[in-house]
Design goal:
about 150 residues; mainly alpha
Length: about 150
Amino acid sequence: MEKRFYVILRTVCFLLMLAMVAIIFTQVVARYAFSNSLSWSEEAGRYIFVWMTFLGAAMAVRNRQHVSLDLILKSLPIFPQKILLSISYLSMMIFTSVLIYGGFKFVARGSRQASSALEIPMNYVYVVLPLAGMLIFAYLVKNFYEDVLARR
């Protein structure tokens, strides 16, 4: 089930990247070939990039590809490793909880705002904050279990 969900997440990120490249490429062609700039393309590219960034962060956490310094960790015996990993995972979970909470506040506020060029409600843009936060939190719990609790 989780692997199927990850495939969907990876596909969504791929499609977002494809859409962003297509939009930016179309903008460049329109500007230089036709001397006519698309007013909405920069904003759309920026919002797609934000979505890709947060969903990509969830993918990185799932695959343990996020930034970490494990030089000291790997030189320690198992029990201190577990303590250090526990502190690390718990601090990331706290940060992610703040992201989720703040993200829901942004979504609530964004329903009263519209983007300037696309004129879409900003909560469509902001909803990625709690969504990605919940994905990251779930992957952190999974990784914590695998790295600390199930590790011998």
